[in-house]
Write a structure and sequence with these properties.
8 helices, 4-stranded antiparallel β-sheet, Pseudouridine synthase, 10-stranded mixed β-sheet, alpha+beta
Length: 335
């Protein structure tokens, strides 16, 4: 049996944080507002419903909507999952061809509110999301405020490491060890649930690649044969020639260096050297026919603002989809 994996302390970009604080003490300490790349057109077979919730996860709300609308679970669309331990606003779609809307207020409780509903011509698909606006309150802030502000200034202009957050890995990394058990055949997992553990395994390998680049001080720089991704799209290319123009585009945040999401396909030699000691994870991901992909190594938050007051730190910023607010927070606070 493979040795159990534990989560390491990934490298920090701007030195370890010298402050402590508490997050999510109350649900409205962590506010997340989902933003779609389009507006519903008012016509069509799908009803888009904007829900505000706290204390409930996305799947619970989706099941409740399916029950009220008397449709199948697969007729419900979402753009992404949202943390139950937060005050979140997100969109759901319900396929109702030729049917009138039910009374959506039936879903409302103290924890769930319907903000609006509108028809649209297409189902809401996973990943069809611009990003999320965050408003965070860190309570019981204690430590070096000057250093914290300096780190925030650096994050505002240079970005922060695009680590997968610990929630991806489960409590004490249990999702990775479940993936190992799946890969070695010691545990059977139904197909609909496998994605959780496959993505955890890939995220774990990616974080190792990113942590290594931070230690080499190249996580936000282009190096020879890097694969770069455009900030406004998912398209990427190999940097076979590094010239002044390319360097300027990276420095300006137009292009970002990427790391491998492991699977069948190209992986850079330097990346393979870093993750090859996790052979069971690599072999298992290939066994389950995952295709390699790329993820940017850094994220530059939009409109990052902060304010200190009475042992509290208020933060607001916008992040593109797939990035974790906790990855930003870990750079400035031990929480």
């Amino acid at each position: 049996m493979s040795e159990l994996i534990t989560l390491p302390q990934w490298a920090w970009a701007y030195g370890s944080p010298s402050a402590t604080g508490n997050i999510k003490t109350q649900a409205n300490d962590f506010i997340v507002e989902e933003q779609l790349p389009f507006q519903a057109d008012g016509l069509g077979e799908h009803v888009f419903i904007q829900i505000q919730k706290q204390g409930e996860n996305t799947d619970y709300v989706a099941r409740a909507l399916a029950r009220i609308a008397q449709v199948r679970q697969r007729d419900i669309g979402i753009a992404g999952l949202k943390d139950r331990h937060a005050l979140t606003t997100q969109w759901f779609s319900v396929w109702l061809p030729g049917k009138v809307d039910p009374d959506w207020s039936e879903i409302e409780t103290e924890a769930i509110k319907v903000l609006q509903s509108i028809r649209h011509s297409r189902k809401l698909k996973r990943g069809v999301l611009v990003g999320n606006q965050f408003h965070l309150l860190i309570r019981d802030f204690s430590g070096d405020q000057v250093k914290c502000e300096h780190q925030l200034e650096q994050i505002k202009t240079q970005g922060f490491p695009n680590y997968f957050g610990e929630q991806r890995f489960g409590v004490q990394g249990q999702n990775i060890n479940t993936a190992l058990a799946l890969f070695t055949g010691t545990r059977k997992i139904k197909r609909p649930q496998r994605g959780i553990y496959l993505s955890a395994a890939r995220a774990y390998l990616f974080n190792h690649i990113l942590s290594h680049r931070i230690k080499q001080m190249t996580w936000n720089q282009v190096i020879e044969n890097d694969i770069l991704m455009f900030s406004d799209s998912k398209s990427f290319f190999k940097a076979e020639k590094i010239d002044d123009e390319l360097l300027q585009r990276v420095n300006n945040g137009i292009l970002h260096p990427t790391g491998c999401l492991y699977g069948q396909g190209e992986i850079l030699t330097d990346e393979r050297v870093i993750i090859e000691k996790y052979n069971d994870l690599m072999t298992g991901l290939i066994k389950f026919d995952l295709k390699s992909d790329r993820r940017v190594l850094r994220v530059i938050p939009q409109n990052l603002q902060w304010q200190f007051s009475k042992q509290q730190l208020h933060l607001s910023f916008f992040l593109p989809s797939g990035s974790y607010a906790t990855a930003l927070l870990r750079e400035i606070i031990n929480f």
